[in-house]
Automatic annotation (TrEMBL):
<protein>
    <submittedName>
        <fullName>MFS transporter</fullName>
    </submittedName>
</protein>
<dbReference type="InterPro" id="IPR036259">
    <property type="entry name" value="MFS_trans_sf"/>
</dbReference>
<feature type="transmembrane region" description="Helical">
    <location>
        <begin position="281"/>
        <end position="299"/>
    </location>
</feature>
<feature type="transmembrane region" description="Helical">
    <location>
        <begin position="148"/>
        <end position="167"/>
    </location>
</feature>
<dbReference type="Pfam" id="PF07690">
    <property type="entry name" value="MFS_1"/>
</dbReference>
<dbReference type="InterPro" id="IPR051788">
    <property type="entry name" value="MFS_Transporter"/>
</dbReference>
<dbReference type="GO" id="GO:0022857">
    <property type="term" value="F:transmembrane transporter activity"/>
</dbReference>
<feature type="transmembrane region" description="Helical">
    <location>
        <begin position="250"/>
        <end position="269"/>
    </location>
</feature>
<feature type="transmembrane region" description="Helical">
    <location>
        <begin position="173"/>
        <end position="194"/>
    </location>
</feature>
<keyword id="KW-0812">Transmembrane</keyword>
<feature type="transmembrane region" description="Helical">
    <location>
        <begin position="108"/>
        <end position="127"/>
    </location>
</feature>
<keyword id="KW-1133">Transmembrane helix</keyword>
<feature type="transmembrane region" description="Helical">
    <location>
        <begin position="215"/>
        <end position="238"/>
    </location>
</feature>
<feature type="transmembrane region" description="Helical">
    <location>
        <begin position="338"/>
        <end position="359"/>
    </location>
</feature>
<dbReference type="InterPro" id="IPR011701">
    <property type="entry name" value="MFS"/>
</dbReference>
<feature type="transmembrane region" description="Helical">
    <location>
        <begin position="21"/>
        <end position="41"/>
    </location>
</feature>
<feature type="region of interest" description="Disordered">
    <location>
        <begin position="391"/>
        <end position="414"/>
    </location>
</feature>
Length: 414
């Protein structure tokens, strides 16, 4: 049986508010899983006595798993219903987080990381597609706030992980407890998600489809924003140390400032979208991020660079949630659109740190962030791709689209 959501642009009701809270809980749980594992990688490396090259291969496995799993997510959601798919996949990812710490040998670690990546990619796709359906059902923007909650979950879980590592807690115990707690949180949140209802005669998503021009244009915006986000997150502390001679504490604080600015902007982003529309929000954010990039490139004092990174975080914060929301209206099905853009942004986040490092090593750190500033400028001038498609006739350029009759299927956030 084919299933779709019963959402539409209806007035807000207690039921719709419950569904909004439910998908918010899912985003928090997803972010918490993402923020937990990174803090225990050194423990896993020591336990298995992994060389840097073997550890590098292990850390590549999640990307391989995600790229393999993402294209299948919309078909899974079509077959069993998106609500059930979100619940099953978030539960799977919460449970799988315990496996890397339990791996007895490198081969088992590779397998665990592949599963981790596949579950991450598939759950990311279906929860974002479901979030678009909730946004349509409520009749107001919610995507930016949901991604802000993802950041909150990731930061909170990362803080717990740092404390656990500092106090020498066995990662098997730590990750096992986290898996159990987040599994319960995910199950509880899943109960309030939008219900599916039958949609007769709706074709299944294609097994493979190249993105159309609209998806590629939206993907370009997402690629540029995610590139700046990923590069800044990974290199801000190093930049302060190497360029401004900042001490370890101030360098670490720069990352915290960057992530906090991103999270706060995402939490406030929905109000901006309601007032200005997605294209204007991204254009204005791009201008702020370009200013931040100029400050970073020119900085020779730590606080100048920190201010620049904070502005970059503010400027690119809303890009990922807004490109997901726009993509749902441009694919053959909402799921195909979200999946296509998610794959593009994931590729950007994967390559950005390496490209930035190569440029910094070949030229200089300021040159690397001059490149990133140019990429943000491309994002700014391309923001028109996020303009909502008119739902018929005289729709305003930035109006929220009416839901289509297609099934609501599916596609480093912070």
């Amino acid at each position: 049986m084919h299933l779709r959501h019963s959402g539409g642009t209806t007035p807000r009701t207690p039921r719709k508010s419950r569904e909004h809270r439910a998908i918010g809980v899912i985003f928090i749980a997803h972010g918490a899983v993402a923020g937990t594992l990174a803090t225990r990688i050194p423990w896993i490396q020591d336990r298995l006595d992994l060389s840097p090259s073997v550890l590098g291969l292990a850390l590549l496995c999640p990307s391989i798993g995600a790229f393999t799993g993402m294209p299948t997510a919309s078909r899974v959601a079509h077959r069993i219903g998106e609500r059930r798919a979100v619940r099953l996949l978030i539960a799977a990812w919460c449970a799988i987080i315990a496996l890397p710490a339990l791996a007895p040998a490198p081969g088992w670690l590779f397998a665990a990381m592949l599963l981790y990546g596949a579950a991450a990619g598939m759950s990311d796709v279906v929860m974002n597609s479901h979030a678009v359906a909730v946004e349509r059902a409520i009749g107001r923007p919610v995507m930016s706030g949901l991604h802000g909650l993802w950041c909150v979950g990731s930061l909170a879980a990362g803080g717990v992980g740092i404390l656990a590592a500092h106090h020498g807690v066995d990662a098997r115990l730590h990750l096992g407890l986290v898996a159990a707690v987040l599994l319960g949180v995910g199950i509880a949140g899943g109960r309030g998600l939008l219900p599916d209802r039958p949609a007769a005669g709706v074709p299944a998503p294609r097994r493979f489809a190249l993105p159309n021009r609209a998806i590629l244009a939206i993907g370009l915006v997402g690629f540029c924003g995610t590139f700046a986000e990923g590069a800044s997150a990974d290199w801000t502390a190093v930049y302060l140390t190497e360029v401004t001679d900042a001490g370890p504490g101030l360098a670490a604080a720069s990352f915290t400032v960057f992530m906090t600015c991103m999270a706060a902007t995402r939490l406030a982003g929905d109000r901006l979208v309601r007032r200005l529309g997605a294209p204007k929000v991204v254009r204005c954010g791009g201008g702020v991020a370009v200013l931040g990039g100029v400050l970073v490139v020119a900085a020779r004092a730590p606080w100048t660079a920190i201010t620049g990174f904070a502005l970059i975080g503010i400027g690119v914060a809303t890009v990922v949630p807004l490109v997901f929301a726009a993509a749902a209206d441009r694919g053959a099905t909402p799921g195909e659109g979200v999946a296509g853009v998610a794959t593009i942004t994931y590729l950007s986040g994967l390559t950005a740190p390496a490209v930035t490092g190569w440029t910094a090593g070949t030229l200089s750190y300021p040159a690397a962030f001059a490149m990133i500033t140019c990429i943000v400028a491309v994002m700014t001038v391309s923001a028109g791709a996020l303009r909502a498609r008119p739902s018929g006739g005289a729709a305003a350029p930035d109006a929220r689209p009416e839901p289509s009759e297609s099934p609501a299927l599916t596609t480093r956030e912070c």
